[in-house]
Every structure is written in C-alpha cells, then in structure tokens.
Amino acid sequence: MIRRFPDWQTRLDTYLREAAARGAVWGETDCCMNAANAVRDCTGVDLAAGFRGRYTTATGAVRVLRRETGATSGLVERLAAKIAGAQGLEEIDPIYAQALDVAFLPLKNTAGLDGVISISDGLAFVVATPESEFTRLPFLSGARAPGARAWRI
C-alpha cells in the first residue's frame, strides 16, 4: 500500500493547478505522466520511474508502451494494470474513486491509443493530453464508460 504524505491534499491541489498552467506535454504532463506526477508529489512513489524521460512525442509514447507491455493493442490499460499490480494497488469500481486515485478511461484520442490515464481530484477525473490540455471529466461520465478501471492510491 502506498502511503500519502500528511499534506497530500494541498500537494495535489498545487500540482494540478501548476500542471494545468504549464499545459500538457508528451513525456512530461501527458495523461500517464500527469497521474504519475500527482502520485509522486503526494506520496513520494514514482509510478513512472521505469519510463520517465524515455519519450517526448506521441510516437515515442507508443513505442515505450509497446516495450513496457509487450503488446500491440490495449497499451494504456495494460500498462496501468501492470504498474498497479507491481505496486499492489487495489482495483476499485471507478465510481468510487476518491482524490488521488488513478483511473484508466477508454476515451478516443489523437494518438490512436486505447484510452487515457487520469487522476481523480475528488470531484472529477483530470485528463491531460497534449491535444486537449487538461480536462475535468465528471465521475458519472468517465466511471460508467465500458472498460473504465480505477485503482486506490
């Protein structure tokens, strides 16, 4: 189980505000890195340690996803499940996601991937993609999407 810092809520609010001001960038604040950055800032655990700094484009992200998962499809969901399993994270129904929980949402995106990774701010899923920047997706919209998954942090 990953332990949160005592001031994790303040850290999460600060991270999300600052990240939204910077904008989404491949390899820095894209969907996977955004969630990993938020978790790292709030817990000290870097879920992206294995691939941080290894890509700067959508093509590079796909290449890393393929290498990390050994697959050619379902890449984002597979990576999320792989990391969650390695960290011993409990899978939960996305409708019960709380602030700092991580979710896979099967949303179409311009990178042609199977979905996006998002971080819960307690009220919505925060999705960061270089194409749409930071978007807040209400729980009922994202959590009920067929194939959505979430993990407790």
What key phrases describe this protein's structure?
about 40% helix; about 150 residues; alpha+beta; 6 strands; six-stranded antiparallel β-sheet
Task: Report what the structure shows.
The protein is 38% helix and 17% strand. The protein has a six-stranded antiparallel β-sheet with strand order 1-6-2-3-4-5. Strand 3 and strand 4 (124-129) form a beta hairpin. It has helices spanning 8-22, 31-43, 58-69, 75-87, 139-143, and strands at 91-92, 102-105, 116-120, 124-129, 133-138, 149-151. It is of the alpha+beta class and 153 residues long. The protein contains five helices and six strands; from the N terminus they run H-H-H-H-E-E-E-E-E-H-E. It starts with 7 loop residues before the first helix and ends with a strand.
